[in-house]
Structure formats: C-alpha cells, structure tokens
C-alpha cells in the first residue's frame, strides 16, 4: 500500500508544458514524456543529466516501446555493464542514480511507478 494517493495531479513547467503525475511524481501516461519532463524531474532528484544518463533513459524508453513492459533493473545493469559485465553496470547505475533505478531512472524516463520491482 502506498502512503500517497494515486490520484493524478497536473504539473506545469515554466515552459508551459503540462503533465499528469501521481503522488510520487511519476507520469500517469508514459506517452506524455518529453525531454523537458526528464530535465525537470532530474533536477528535482538532484541529478544533472549527462550523455550517459540520456543513453540509459532512451534505452529504458525504447525497451518499453519494443516489449510493452518497463525493463527490470537487471537488464539495465547488463546494458550499462556491456562487456565489463553486470557488476560494472550495477556500480554505474548507482553512480548515475544514487537513490535507485525505480526511484530515479524510471521516474526520469517517464515510466509509471511499478507496484513491485527487483533491484537486480
């Protein structure tokens, strides 16, 4: 059970862009995602997005579009680790998103908050 109500609220950015988000700041509809939303959400999380952040964010969105489900953290670690392996990917994931894959990467990528997840 979540402590914050699920009822979406409208977030309006300085640019005038409007987004419906849940009580935890996740998009109500991932199709509404824009890079402006990502930049805003990352700032709220204390993250300055680098090219490597964008690489993972775009990969998350592509995986969801291709497979119809948000990719699990294990696959993100494998993606980041490449030839160096999952452990290297795990270290990089928590360097990029210190408060976690779901708390930060998934939210910034515009996915809905999952009900349950694995941290890999």
UniProtKB/TrEMBL annotation:
<dbReference type="InterPro" id="IPR025526">
    <property type="entry name" value="DsrC-like_dom_sf"/>
</dbReference>
<dbReference type="InterPro" id="IPR007453">
    <property type="entry name" value="DsrC/TusE"/>
</dbReference>
<dbReference type="InterPro" id="IPR042072">
    <property type="entry name" value="DsrC-like_C"/>
</dbReference>
<protein>
    <recommendedName>
        <fullName>TusE/DsrC/DsvC family sulfur relay protein</fullName>
    </recommendedName>
</protein>
<keyword id="KW-0963">Cytoplasm</keyword>
<dbReference type="InterPro" id="IPR043163">
    <property type="entry name" value="DsrC-like_N"/>
</dbReference>
<comment type="similarity">
    <text>Belongs to the DsrC/TusE family.</text>
</comment>
<dbReference type="Pfam" id="PF04358">
    <property type="entry name" value="DsrC"/>
</dbReference>
């Amino acid at each position: 059970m979540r402590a914050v109500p699920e009822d979406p609220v409208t977030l309006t950015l300085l640019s005038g862009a409007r987004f419906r988000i849940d009580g935890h700041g996740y998009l109500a509809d991932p199709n509404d995602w824009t890079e402006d939303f990502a930049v805003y959400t990352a700032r709220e999380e204390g993250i300055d997005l680098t090219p490597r952040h964008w690489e993972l964010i775009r990969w998350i969105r592509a995986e969801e579009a291709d497979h119809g489900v948000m990719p699990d953290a294990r696959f993100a670690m494998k993606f980041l680790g490449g030839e160096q392996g999952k452990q290297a990917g795990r270290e990089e994931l928590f360097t990029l998103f210190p408060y976690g894959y779901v708390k930060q990467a998934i939210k910034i990528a515009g996915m809905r908050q999952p009900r349950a997840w694995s941290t890999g």
